[in-house]
Amino acid sequence: MIKNLNYILILATIVILGAVGIAFIFGTTFSWVMSETDGLWRQTALYQDYVNVMNLTVGPMVILLVIVLGLCIPKRLFSGARLLQLMGSLTAMTLVLSLSLGIRLGISALLTVAMFMQMVVIVMTLVGSKKLVFEVTGFYIQIGSALLHMGLILFLFDLVLIGDALAQRTLHLNIFWVSTLFIGVGMVFTFYSDELSRLFSRGQASA
Amino acid sequence: MNISGYLLAREMTTRIGQPLIYLLLIFSIALAVVTVVPALRRNMRYFVLVLFLNLVAGWLRLVNFHYRIATELVLADPSGAMATGRFYIPVWIEDEKFFFWPLILCGLVLFSRYKDQVWQTALSALLAIFGVLTFFTSNPFAEPLKDFHAGYIQYAMTAVANVDPAVKAQAYHSLHGRMVGFYNSEYMWTHPPMLFISYATFAVAFMGGILMLTKRDDIYEKLGYSYAKAGFIILTIGLLLGYPWALTAWSGEPWWYDPKINITLMMWVAYSAYLHARLYTHRRGMRVTAASLNYLGFFGVVFTYVSTYLIPGIHSVAG
């Protein structure tokens, strides 16, 4: 079942990413046409309208992406019915908070829960716990995946909750650099896990 | 400030560079011929090596020119006539962009560990196309750093002219702003080159996708994937490094949803979707989906680059 769930989440991610891509193509084409019609359109109210339409189009898709990402996290810690219950609870919590307190807080709450779960996943991976549910084997790919997801959560959390307002720019950028580090290291570990395993096992053997 | 030293270095760059760019065209055409004539293919790697040395020679000339800019030119505050800074300009701006990209691609082709002739021929053909395109669209030697040159000469002429101090101050501040936020920015040294390196790896990945389709051999898809994942890491880090730069350089300006940023994000999501789809190629339909996303991603790479010159915006030189 977990394999199918993974596949569904991956499929959902691809579909949402594809939709975001189409929205960006629309935005670029629209900008191009507008620039050809009126070279100064970025100084007009039309530009703000364009930004609003793009926000309305891309915003929900990014929210869906965050939800899918948030749902991806518990699958490392839980499986079977408990996983489905937890995923349902997380979705319900996000919806209720979004409807009552606003989307920003709803999404931030989901990301906060996901962040704590991911911290647990990272620690358990580092200590070599056998309780984690990974569909792939090997330390580097597991810790890489965990760090990459943590980086993405931090990045989105930073963007959604902290924002780039001048008053909190330093905090925003500090979290941004941490998330960039996690994403970079996570990607290298995930994509080059076999090479890293060979490299370090060789190092250990020669030592 | 030693303008004559700078002008001499610029002229030397043109004198040395122009023959090199013509050689680039000749070697690229020769490489293209080698790729289509089977009898000549066993010498292909020598042609790639010569092309690589040609590109490296051109690039070293540009490095020398940029070094001379850093040592010969200063930007002085007209109010106090104090030296306020030198220009440390990376070697991938203006027309140098499309010179740097083939240089990286050539290195990837030359040092590719997979020696299969079909693979090497396809990559060499791609390289030949890039070489010809560089000659016709982006010659960095004809007028080295045209925009920088125009801006600096205007500043230098205003500095010595008998004009209102306010005009001098305006010329100084205009160039100073570009020096701090663009030419000397640490992000200029990291964000663009990472993107160009990723573009070169995506070009190779695209070729892998094309060969998989035409030759029906999985090895090319795997080769393409190995380049795509390397390119994706570099692209992601490169894009992220552009974010703090955008916050400071375009503070107060509407840069979100700029056409170039849109299309770059489209490219990123296409490659991200490709790498996700690639995990499940054993499932029905996912193989075609993954391959299509690889092609879409490369379309995004080409369009991202071309959009800089076509679509006006904050990240563009068009209009």
What does this structure look like?
The complex is a heterodimer of chains A (207) and B (319). Chain A is mainly α and 207 residues long. Chain A folds into two domains: 1-102, no CATH class; 134-207. Chain A is built from seven helices and no strands. Chain A has helices spanning 2-37, 45-72, 80-101, 103-126, 139-162, 169-191, 193-206. The radius of gyration of chain A is 20 Å and the shape is globular. By secondary structure, chain B is mainly α. Chain B is built from ten helices and two strands. Chain B has helices at residues 3-36, 44-72, 97-110, 117-137, 146-160, 165-183, 191-215, 218-249, 259-278, 286-310; strands spanning 74-77, 82-86. In chain B, strands 1-2 form a two-stranded antiparallel sheet. Chain B is flat. Chain B starts with a helix and ends in a 9-residue tail after the last helix. At the A-B interface, helix 1, helix 2 and helix 6 of A face helix 8, helix 9 and helix 10 of B.
Short description:
The complex is a heterodimer of chains A (207) and B (319). With 207 residues, chain A is mainly α. Chain A has helices at residues 2-37, 45-72, 80-101, 103-126, 139-162, 169-191, 193-206.
- Provide the structure class of chain B: mainly alpha
Largest sheet of chain A: none
Overall pLDDT of chain A: 84
According to DSSP, the number of beta strands of chain B is 2
Number of helices of chain B: 10
Strands ordered across the widest β-sheet of chain B: 1-2
What share of residues of chain B is helical?
A: over 70%
Question: Largest sheet of chain B, described in full?
Answer: 2 strands, antiparallel
The radius of gyration over CA of chain A amounts to 20 Å
Strand content of chain B: under 5%
Tell how many strands the DSSP assignment of chain A holds: 0
Q: Give the DSSP E fraction of chain A (strand runs of 2 or more residues).
A: under 5%
Find the biggest chain interface: A-B, 31 and 39 residues
Structural class of chain A, by secondary structure, is mainly alpha
